[in-house]
Amino acid sequence: MLVSVTGGTGFVGAHSVAAIAQMGHRVRMLVRDPSKVGRALAPFGLGRDDVETVPGDVTDEASVARAMRGADAVLHAASVYSFDSRLRARMREVNARGTELVLGAARRAGAGTIVHVSSIVAMFPAPGGVIDAGSPVGRPRETYMASKAEAEVIARRHQEEGAPVVITYPPALLGPHDPNLGDQNARVRGVLRGLTPIWPLGGFPVGDVRDTAALHAKVLASPSGGPGRHFGPGRYLSTREYVNALREVTGRALPTLFLPARGMIPIGLLTDLVQRVWPWHIPAEYGAIYTCACATRVAENAGTFGIAPRPVAETVGDTVRWLYESGHLSARQAGSSIRPSLTSVGAQ
Is 323:185 a contact under the CB 8 Å cutoff? Predict the structure, then answer.
C-alpha cells in the first residue's frame, strides 16, 4: 500500500511515518524541505532513500496533487502547532486552507482511507463535562485552536459527503525524537529550566506520540478504519499532576505557584501583544493558559482503536531523557531521570 503523508518531518508525522513503514507500507512524503527528511527519520532507522519525497507545500494546490496521485491512503498531519502570536497568519493558511486542499486532492486521487490529524482542542470549549466523537466543533477564542476548529469543520463536511475520511484527535503529545522541538516538549524543557514557575490551575489531556503514531498506522491498515473519529490514547492531567510527574521523574523540587487559570488570562493576552515585537519566545502564552481554563476530559468510552495509553511516568521519563541526550537539558536539569544511563556509561 502506498501512503502519502503530509507533515512527515514533524513530531507526529515522523513517528507516524516510522509506524507505517514498519508495517511494510510504502510512504510518500510531501515536504517543504527534503533535506529535513533524513534527520527526522534517522532515529527510527530510516533514511531519505526509504521514502519517496515530493517537494512542495500543503498550501500549494499543484504540489499537493502530485503528492496524492496514485496513493492508496493519505495521512494529513501537516499543521502549524504553536501558541506563538507571531505565527497567526501561517496557522490560518496551513491548518485550514491546507486541510481543504489536501482532503480534496486525496478524494480526487481515489485514496481509500484519508486520515485527517485534528486535535482535541478543536472541540474546546465543550458544553459538557466530557468530549467524545459526537461532540460539536468548538468555538475557541485562541488562534491556533480556532484554526484547528476550522479544519475540523472541513474534515467533517467531507465525512458528511461520504468521503472515506477518518479524523484523529491527539492530546497534548510528549515523547522522544522531536525533530523540531515542538510546543509540548519545549514546555517540559521550560519547566525544568525554571522558566515557568507559575502555572494556571486546570489541566489538559496528555499522551505519548508513539501511541498516536500506532493509532494512525492501525487505522490506515484497517479496512474498517473509516469513516470515523478516534482519539489519540492519553489521560487528562491537572496542571498539578503534570508538574508532579516531572518532579517524580527528575527527583527535583520544582517550586511552582498555581493560580486560577481565568485570572491569568489577562497576563497571557498582554504577553501575546508583547510577543509580536519581542524577538525571543515568552513562555507565558495566552493559548496555553486558555487551554488549561477550558479543557475537559475525554469520555471513557471514546474510541482509541484498541490502543491503551502507556504510563505517564514512562512517557515523561523518556521525554526528559531524550531532551538531555539531545542537548536540550543539562544533567542537573534532567535530574535523576538520567541516572541509569550515567551509571551504564560509567560501567563501560
Answer: yes
Walk me through the domains of the chain, giving residue ranges and CATH numbers.
2-173+208-234 (3.40.50.720)
Could you give the CA distance from residue 258 to residue 178 in angstroms, rounded to a whole number?
28
Which DSSP helix (H) or strand (E) runs through 160? helix 143-160
Whole-number Å distance between alpha carbons of 131 and 218 = 23
- Give the tens place of pLDDT for each residue, 266-319: 988 898 888 888 888 777 788 899 999 999 999 887 777 889 999 999 999 999
Cα gap 176→317, rounded to integer Å: 9
* Mean pLDDT on 90-94: 91
Report d(CA 61, CA 341) in Å as an integer.
47
Phi, psi at residue 178, to the nearest 5°? Answer: -100, 105
- The residue among 38, 62, 39, 68 whose CA lies nearest residue 51 is 38
CA distances to 49, 257, 285 from 196, rounded to whole Å, are 41, 9, 11
Residue type, 142: E
The Cα–Cα gap between 16 and 211 comes to 9
Whether pLDDT at 37 is above 70: yes
- 250's grid cell: 527528575
Which of the listed ranges 138-152, 240-254, 281-295 does the model predict with the highest average pLDDT?
240-254
CA distance 344 to 346: 5
Burial state string for 75-93 with b = 16 or more CB within 10 A and e = fewer than 16: bbbbbbbbbbbeebeebbe
| Residue 39, pLDDT above cutoff 50 | yes
